[in-house]
């Protein structure tokens, strides 16, 4: 369920994320977050979560289990008749 929070923003633009939000993001101590703005508002995530999401989106298009570069080279060699 979405949470609504009011966070104080200092004159220099700094703000503190509440501990429970940092826990949800998997942050302990210092770290970095990714802030995204779209028509629905502002969203916070981590690089690890963004990478996981990209992998999920790309999974249906993944053809093999090896290196994409190795597959590309093998296809080119096959097309040219090389061994």
From TrEMBL:
Keywords: DNA-binding. This is AbrB family looped-hinge helix DNA binding protein. It comes from the Bacteria. Residues 4-49 form the SpoVT-AbrB domain. PROSITE patterns: SPOVT_ABRB. The lineage of its organism: Bacteria, Pseudomonadati, Pseudomonadota, Alphaproteobacteria, Hyphomicrobiales. InterPro entries: SpoVT-AbrB_dom, SpoVT-AbrB_sf.
